[in-house]
Amino acid sequence: MIQEAVHDTSHQQEGHQTGPATVCSAQSSGNLVRFWELRGRPVFEMHGIWWGHHRGPFYTSLPFQLKADVGPDEAREILSRARIPGLCFPSDRPGLPAGHYVIRPEGYGLAAVNRKQRGHVTRGLEACELRTLGADELLHQGMPLNRETLSRQAREDATFLDPVRWKAFVQAVGRCPGMTVHGAFVEGRLATYLISCRDGQWLHLIYKMSSRTGQEHHPNHALDFAIIRDAAADPGIRFIGNGMTSILPNEGLDRYKRQLGYQVEPHNLSIHFHPWLAPALSTAGAIAVLRRAQTLLPGGSRLAYYTTVLEGALTSRAGLTRR
Fold first, then answer.
1. Which of 127, 175, 184, 292 is 20 to 30 Å apart from 68, CA to CA?
2. Can you list the positions of beta strands (E) in the chain?
3. Are 168 and 37 in contact (CB under 8 A)?
4. Which domain CATH number covers 206?
5. 123-175 per-position pLDDT tens digit
6. Using 50, 70 and 90 to split pLDDT, how confident is the model at 29?
């Protein structure tokens, strides 16, 4: 769930096929769960799956590559026993068509990058200093990038904007096993940072922030390429996960990731509301109200997002996969 303040049928690069083994059974606690705990975010284990608070009312399954075999009845039990408002998780059960950006890093190099991006990568590698950041560097140099990124995206997230919460977040990154802060510097200034989490055979890219300053030197391309290239030298890393597809289409981000060599591992996004909420929200009537609101307020991306979420909740509840 990479975010720039990520957290979104392509050609396949020969020799870089994806197709990681899908994990569908109980998981032991790993570094991602530990990171949730150190951040003070709610996390619990139920039905052999770890669940962590994601955003808004929703909890998601951990680790990210897990396809949870949880149907409507099991979801209602989890929601009721845990007393949480919603679940949103990858599954082969009915839900919104979605996917996970994944690459096998073994043998990765410039040949795996689409020719449209290859020049940006090589120029970025020449112009940027790429290295890891310590906690103090991230604390002091990361905040301006947080503000710029969230401002560009018209989003707010107190974790990355409030100095007290930001300090707590940085401390959690520093204390959690498997966490690395990767940085791209242009003329000595931090232009892009990306936080990854090593969890078993997986390297998850989970947070990314950047500044507009220095983007003509392509620090994003250089950093994203270098992380995959460096992971290729570690035989213990078999897969890199670079977030999920967006609920609302984001063609530019999708194209960028695919051109770097990522493939989309498909799944359905199962969405379930608490039994007290589902009769009001997971219904055709609620969706119709939001669709009507969209016609009255055209261009409202929030309404489109909420409408799609409720459509996913309806298909997940009914057990019919949306096409």
1. 175
2. 43-46, 49-55, 58-62, 86-91, 96-103, 129-132, 179-186, 189-199, 202-210, 239-244, 263-273
3. no
4. 3.40.630.30
5. 999 999 999 999 999 999 999 999 999 999 888 899 999 999 999 999 999 99
6. low
- Write the CA distances from 299 to 48, 294, 305, integer angstroms: 42, 8, 11
Is the predicted pLDDT of residue 184 greater than 80, yes or no? Answer: yes
pLDDT, tens digit, for every residue of 278-317?
999 999 999 999 999 988 887 667 899 999 999 999 999 9
Question: Does residue 114 form part of some domain?
Answer: yes
Buried b (16+ CB within 10 A) or exposed e, 128-143: bebeebeeebbbebbb
What's the rounded Cα separation, in Å, for the pair 192 and 222? 10
* pLDDT, mean of residues 165-191: 97
To the nearest 10°, report the CA torsion of 55, 178, 246, 301.
40
Say if CB 105 and CB 226 are below 8 A apart: no
Q: Where are the beta strands (DSSP E) in 165-224?
A: 179-186, 189-199, 202-210
Question: 174: Cβ–Cβ under 8 A, 6 or more apart, which residues?
Answer: 135
Rounded to whole angstroms, the Cα distance separating 35 from 13 reads: 33
Directed axis angle between helix 72-82 and helix 301-318, to 10°? 110
Helix (H, G, I), strand (E, B) or coil at 17: coil
pTM for this prediction: 0.89
Write out the residue range of the structural domain in which residue 229 sits. Answer: 103-266
Phi-psi label, residue 90: left if phi above 0, alpha if psi -120 to 50, beta otherwise: beta
Token pair in block for residue 42 = 């709610």
Task: Please check whether residue 179 lies inside any domain of the structure.
Answer: yes
pLDDT at 24 over 50: no
Tell me if 165 is assigned to some domain.
Answer: yes
Within a domain: 20: no
